[in-house]
Every structure is written in structure tokens, then in C-alpha cells.
Amino acid sequence: xxxxxxxxxxxxxxxxxxxxxxxxxxxxxxxxxxxxxxxxxxxxxxxxxxxxxxxxxxxxxxxxxxxxxxxxxxxxxxxxxxxxxxxxxxxxxxxxxxxxxxxxxxxxxxxxxxxxxxxxxxxxxxxxxxxxxxxxxxxxxxxxxxxxxxxxxxxxxxxxxxxxxxxxxxxxxxxxxxxxxxxxxxxxxxxxxxxxxxxxxxxxxxxxxxxxxxxxxxxxxxxxxxxxxxxxxxxxxxxxxxxxxxxxxxxxxxxxxxxxxxxxxxxxxxxxxxxxxxxxxxxxxxxxxxxxxxxxxxxxxxxxxxxxxxxxxxxxxxxxxxxxxxxxxxxxxxxxxxxxxxxxx
Amino acid sequence: xxxxxxxxxxxxxxxxxxxxxxxxxxxxxxxxxxxxxxxxxxxxxxxxxxxxxxxxxxxxxxxxxxxxxxxxxxxxxxxxxxxxxxxxxxxxxxxxxxxxxxxxxxxxxxxxxxxxxxxxxxxxxxxxxxxxxxxxxxxxxxxxxxxxxxxxxxxxxxxxxxxxxxxxxxxxxxxxxxxxxxxxxxxxxxxxxxxxxxxxxxxxxxxxxxxxxxxxxxxxxxxxxxxxxxxxxxxxxxxxxxxxxxxxxxxxxxxxxxxxxxxxxxxxxxxxxxxxxxxxxxxxxxx
Amino acid sequence: xxxxxxxxxxxxxxxxxxxxxxxxxxxxxxxxxxxxxxxxxxxxxxxxxxxxxxxxxxxxxxxxxxxxxxxxxxxxxxxxxxxxxxxxxxxxxxxxxxxxxxxxxxxxxxxxxxxxxxxxxxxxxxxxxxxxxxxxxxxxxxxxxxxxxxxxxxxxxxxxxxxxxxxxxxxxxxxxxxxxxxxxxxxxxxxxxxxxxxxxxxxxxxxxxxxxxxxxxxxxxxxxxxxxxxxxxxxxxxxxxxxxxxxxxxxxxxxxxxxxxxxxxxxxxxxxxxxxxxxxxxxxxxxxxxxxxxxxxxxxxxxxxxxxxxxxxxxxxxxxxxxxxxxxxxxxxxxxx
Lengths: 345, 287, 337
What we know:
The complex is a heterotrimer of chains A (about 350), B (about 290) and C (about 325). The two termini of chain A are about 35 Å apart. In chain A, a hairpin with a 2-residue loop joins strand 9 and strand 10. The longest helix of chain A is centred in the middle third of the chain and has 18 residues, at about 195-215. Chain A has helices spanning about 60-65, 90-95, 110, 120-130, 135-150, 155-160, 165-180, 195-215, 225-230, 250-255, 260-265, 305-310; strands spanning about 15-25, 30-40, 45-50, 75-80, 85, 100-105, 185-190, 215-220, 235-240, 240-250, 315-320, 320-325. Chain A is α/β, with parallel strands linked by helices and about 350 residues long. Chain B starts with about 25 loop residues before the first helix and ends in a 6-residue tail after the last helix. Chain C has about 325 residues and is mainly alpha-helical. In chain C, about 75% of the residues lie in helices and about 0% in strands. In chain C, helix 9 (about 195-230) packs across helix 11. Classes of the chains: A alpha/beta (about 350), B mainly alpha (about 290), C mainly alpha (about 325). The interface of A and C includes residues 112, 113 and 125 of A.
């Protein structure tokens, strides 16, 4: 239904690629489709931001790609690392997890096991994937990793339990754990949402540094376009289980092609001194069971036309910018006919 | 995190018929069991072919068409005796729980509402009573008062009231600070009035749930005391007493079978209904 | 938390004093002359014995003073004299304690090991056949009267099938192994008496299952519920994202967390164990404290029944204390210090 993400050097497959991913939760009438054919790709040293409101399917997409959706959930499509297909190979995917692909979570308060020391949780990560490493060697490495993510007194900290860490330190420990086996892909699910603003910046800086130094492919799942601006190379905007816009980050910011993206940007506090003119998006995203026909966004769209209610727009790419909107005209390079700020209500 | 990760986002599939959510199959079965025993207890003398105390046939007969659960060591019909057993177990359980709830709740409400020294004294008494393993305390009390169902009932009240004191005290403590209570106090309502009119009506649900489950447990405890020889005395057709007769005539398994099933069904019935009530009052605590 | 434990440590003797006080009041509630309860009816005609008992228990003094004497006697380990066995109650209990402990420990093993396994399996296979089976088994365990299930099991496994021996601790034709621990199974092994060990172990199976089943029911339910709770936590997802195998996720991550609330219930289930032990011993003619209590109660042997009650209360309080300490040690979030 959509073209593959446009990219330079398309002859070589991207490092990590998700194609036409569908995730169906058990439910009435054949189940509830949370993700409806999502395509994403990220390469070494690159940061892809996956942006959407809660319920847009952004987390589910990545969990499904990692094989972490629970029993009863159907996942179809394609998940490739280095061109190799992993979907439908749970054991192979398990070996991959924590080794070549690692994940960090939104709330470091709850994502660390409260009854294991931080050091033990990092050494576990190492020893799951390499039985040859002794507990001692692993612990030494865990201390080094904590030092790498700038946790002070790493040796003492390794022997402590998560509740003895502050929020920011826990997220650092989480990152240290994720980096333990030198992964190629790091998926960060809202890594800063639960943290104080000052700590947020430090964590973003830490992730950015790891990306640069280690050539990490970073998938940043977030609802916060503000974080995306400073860190991401490319953005994929998800709405109701579909990619509605995909573009290099500057393109998305300065020439959003989808009204949803435009609305998200308007809802953003003062990227360019636009202070005091925040425009929240009316309404809330549709629930899993009640996705509207046509374009899922049309009930909230300020510029919707009758066609949007019956016909779902395809994701159409021009160059490296793609959007799924009947009114977007990427080739014409004209801005969307969005209403003026504040006038949308 | 991972807002939509696990099926928490999938809406609960409601059954097509409009049955309240707490009224699950076990709860319905529980109600049916209890209804069965209530009907039996009330009507049993009207329709049974034998008298529970009279010899109905040859002794120690295995189950047959004439005696569905056989006969006991004296030739009495075991099924009839089992059905008559409900006339002892059910009223005793209801009375014991009612008295325990009355005593426990009253003391708990007073302790929670007044606080201070009264609270300390009552709650220390509760702590000490709960420090006894229930059956041993019940045995000691029954032994001191002398065997018999009436004394066993007193003993069972003695072991079961403290839980209600704790439950009610906790409720009163949490309700005491509520706005409507403080408003009533500010409006000049007297202490007993505030407690009775503004706090107690809201404090009943945990007690009711616990009391329902306790009914089954008291049936079990009463039977246990009778089994030991401290409750109902022969020839009363009480279930625990019947099982202890069954233990003597060990090879005639049917003597103990019926009363055992009766106890089990009562315990299950009340705990099913109790589970349902808990879900009704506090849907979040559901399993 | 250390403060909580210290506070509990102070509370335990106070609660024990309360237990003793209630026991004292009960023994004074008994119908008739409390002296009868102490020396027994037949000895009442012997003025020497009566005078000695009166002096010993201070029966000629007013109630408060008598209470002090009673507590003093208890503190020196004197629980009075059973008028059924004509021996000191404390001595009777010491003789019977190993039998009860052996049974209770075996039942605890059945209940804890079985309950945890079933609870984990039920949570892992939620809403599948295994889950339903485990829940039914657990429900029956905590609802079935042990004095009845014991009889039925004896009938089925001993009479009908002949797989296991009948009631009692040991074949009456066998000599008890020389007492070291008082546990027949252990002592028989220590003495190298293989036939005695086999018989003692086989006789332990049924009562341990009957008694352990009640505990198993409680533990299964709680482990299942707390496993389900824990399995929904973020750190479980995080553990899976590390590439941990399902077995590692279940046991190293989920169970370790689910065990913390379970510890409390294990202490709590001890009350059920004592209740169950009294009845189980009665059914299986197990010569332990439970049978002693039942015989004492039937014979209205007040010193014995009250002695057992005090010891039971003390054991119950101690278990709760141990549980609290174990809880504090198991959960690193609870500060010790």
C-alpha cells in the first residue's frame, strides 16, 4: 500500500526494517487491529523518531517488532535486521533481544526489577547472551557500563537496588543495561517522559553521544515533537495505527504535509518564539474498537473534506517525504491550507 | 508506559444478555447451593420418608434405592440425617456470624471513632484474641463451658468477632475524615449521631463480604467441634457428629460421605457468593 | 523496619501475657471447683494433695494473687498437671511435640512446594485448562473439611487400593527408632533402620497431603494472584526485552517478586495448619499435640487443654514474628536500620 521509505543507497537494505506490520489484539469480530500496515526503517548512526499520541500504536509497533506482544496477539508483516527476516521466529528473536537490539522504557521506576541489584540486572543481560562470561567479569563490565553512562561511584551503585537510585540515575542504569552487549539497534520508548526537564536534556545528550560514538541505530518513540527536533534525523508520524507522514526532521517541521503533523506542531510550546499561541488538537484519538472509516483523522481534522470520510488516503511519497492525506500536495510544494492559529476552535 | 502494549486497552467484551458483571457462574452456583439448603432446612420434615432419629432399616447398609446414602450404625437413614443436618448448621452459622458482627462491629466502630485509650484497650483485646489459633481457643472455651452446640456457638462467637472489629475500625477511620462527616460535626451533630447516621451506613460492605464467607467457615468450625466431641452430641444429626460416627465405622464409607459433601457444598456456596459480593462492592479488587 | 521488628519483639511477650490472662480466666470459668481441674476428682478426697495443690496454685488466695501465682508457674515452665495422664502437661507436650512437628513440616512442604508450583503454572497458563484445574484444586483444598477428606483418603488409598498403610505413625509391630530428633523418618535413617523409615514415611504421606492441601489452596491462590500482578509489570517486559527465556522471566524475575506477598500468607496459613493439625491427627490417630488436645477436651482435662492453647498461641505469635522478619529481609525496599 505504500512505497518503502525513501533513502540514499537503496541497493543495500537498511539495518533495521519493519514492513507492512499489522498487530491484532484478540477481540470481537476477528480482533482489534492496533497497527495497520506500518513501514519503518533505520540505519546505523541514524535516529528515527516515531511520533504519535498514546493509542496511536507507536509502542505496540516496536514491541511487536521485538516479539514482545503477549500471547493471543497476532503480528504479521516483516521485521528484518541486516536483511534477515525475524518475524515468526520467536526463539531467534529472543536471542536477538538484548544482544543486537535493546530497548529502554518510559518509566525507569517500574522497568527495573525492584528485588535485584542494578549490577545484577546488568550482569544478567550480559550472561543471558554469553554463558562464557563469569559473574566476576560480568560485574566488572557492569561497573564500566555504569561509568560509561556517567553514573557516579559506579562500583558502589552496582550493589544497590533500583529504589536507591534517583529517576535520572535509573534511566542511566537502564541505558547502561541496554548497552551491555553493544547492540546495533536501540529502541527507546518515551525515555524521558517520566523525568524532570533538566534530567531529560541529560538523557537525550547521553543517547545522542552513544549514537555518535557507537554508530547506534536509535528508534525514539515519543509523543513529544520537542525532543525530536534536537535529536532525530527522520520522523514518522503515527495516527490510529498507520504512518500518516514520514520525512526528514526539518521537512516535517517546516513543511508538514499532513494536517495532523501540522496540528501537533501548533500544539508545541514555542519552537520559534511562538509563545502563548498553543493550539491543542480538538478531540482525542479514536479507540481501537471505534476507528472511523475513510481517513482516521477526519473527525478531528480542521480541513477535512467529504472525500476524507469515505476514502482512506494512501501514503504517497515524493522524494524522501511521504504523507497520507488527500489534500497534501508534496510535489506542488504549497503549504497545507491550515486555519490560522487559534481559529481552529 | 507502552500504553497499548498489553490487552488492557481492549475493551471488556460484555455478554449479550444484560447480566451484571459480578454475577458470574460461580456466584449463581453459590446462590443456588445456599437456596437449596435453606429450602431443605425449612421443609425437610414435610417430605422425608424416614425420621432422622428412628431406625429405618438394617444397620450399616450400603447405599441402595431404599436408602440412597445407606444406613448408619444404628440403622438410621444417612441421607435423611444429612438433610436434617442443615437445620442445625445453617441457623447456628447465621446466629454466630450475626452476633460476632454485632459485637465486633460495635467495638470496632467505637474504637475507630473515639480513638485514644478506648481504641488501645479494645484493639489490644482484639490482638490477643487473634493470637490464638481459632480452633484451640474454641476448644478451650467449649471445654470450659461444657460440650454442646449452644456452648460451641458461644465459643465460635468468641473466636470470630475480632476480625469484624478490625474491619469496622478501619472503615470508620477512613470515613471519619470525609467531608460530609466533618460537615455534620460542624453542624453540631452529636457524636453517636454522626457515627450512626453518617459513618456506619457507608462502612458495611467489607463486613458484609467477610460475614458471607464466614458463614461457610462457621459451618466448618461447628462441624469440626462436633467431630472432636465438643459440639453436637449424639444422637443429633449434625454433620461433624455424623462424620465422627463414620470414623468409628470406618469401612462403611457412606456414613461420612453425605455430611462431608454437605459441609463442602456450604463452604463453597458461601465463599462463591462472598466473592461475588466483593466484586460488586469493590470491582477493582476483582481477580 | 528494624524499628517495626523491635516493636513486634516487644509486643510478642505482651500478647503472650494477654493469651495467658485469657487462658487463666477460662480456667476459672470452668464449672465447679477449679481444684478438680488441677488434681482430678479422685484426688479430691486426699487432703494432703488438696492442700498441696491449693498452696501451689494459690487457690486459697484472692483472684489477683492467684493470677500472679499462675503466671509465675507458667514462667517456670509449669503448665499444671493433666488429670487424665496424671503427668505434668508440659512434659506431655514435649513428648508429643516431635510427632506434630514432623507432620506439620511435611504438610508445609506439600503446601508450599505444591502451592507455589500450581500458582506459577496457573498464572502462566492463565484461563487455560491448567489454570482452571489448579484453581479447582486450590478451592477444594481450602474448603474441604480435613477430618472428612482424611477419612475418604484413608478409605481409598489404604482400604480400597492398599497403596498406603493405615493410620498411626508406625506399624505397631515395629519398634520406634532410638529418639534423636523425635522425627521417626529422620531417626530411622540415622539408626539405619530402613524398614522403619519406609513405614514411617509411607504413613506420613496421607496426613501430610490432607493437611498440606489446605495450605496449598491458600498459597496457590495468592501466588497466582501476585504472579498475575507481577507479570503485568514493566520490569517483566523489560526482562523479556533483555532476551531472557520464559523460564528465567517466570522464576528469576516474576516469582522472586511474587514471593514477597506470599511470605506473609505462609505465616498466616500457619493458623490453618494448627487447626488442621488438630483434626488431621484425630483422624489419623497421630500421637501428637492435636490428638492430645482432642482427648483432653473430650475428657474435660482443663489444665491440658489450656496448656495446649497457650503453647499454640505462643507458636502462632512466634511464626508471625518470623514471617515479619522474613518479609523485611526479602524485600530490599524495606529498610533495615
